[in-house]
Design a protein that fits this description.
This protein is of the alpha+beta class. Helix content is about 40%, strand content about 15%. The protein has one domain: Alpha-Beta Plaits. Strands 2-3-1-4 form a four-stranded antiparallel β-sheet, sandwiched between helices. This is Transposase. One of its GO terms (molecular function) is sequence-specific DNA binding.
Length: about 180
Amino acid sequence: MPRGLERLHCTGHFHFLTFSCYQRQPFFGNAAACDLFEDALERTRERFRWLISGYVVMPEHVHLVVNEPEIHGTLADAVKGLKLSVTLRQNRRPFWQARYYDFNLFTEAKHSEKLRYLHRNPVTRGLVAKPEDWRWSSFRHHSTGVQGVVQVESWWSFVERERRERESRVRTDGPGAPGFS
């Protein structure tokens, strides 16, 4: 993250992240490297119970739309774990630029805008003609509902899950619950 910028970090908040390969080198310029990144991203998602709403792997950078990790630390810890995992498996040092860009997503509109941006990034860069042609992104999940290597959850399913959890807590902790006085 750039120095001197304050970011709000709260459970449930989404962030648009960008991090680049060292000196913008195209370290993800082949299928094997992109596949490795997707595997590392899924392992990091599982370890931190990280909700991933969108991602794209570009030849020299990565975009993610993620929330705050539910366990094992902060957003910075999850990013550090992901970057370290990729670095060790690629056996190339340095692999990443030291910092990353973090933009808070407070509204559904901004969340959707960033998803559109990252899914169109391979098209804008001339790598493919249509977003669905780029294999290393969450576009297919969002357009078909089929999960890939990385488990992706939409904004709407996240909001609905959060609502159900809140209602469940009210039913088990509020009036009418066992032991409630």
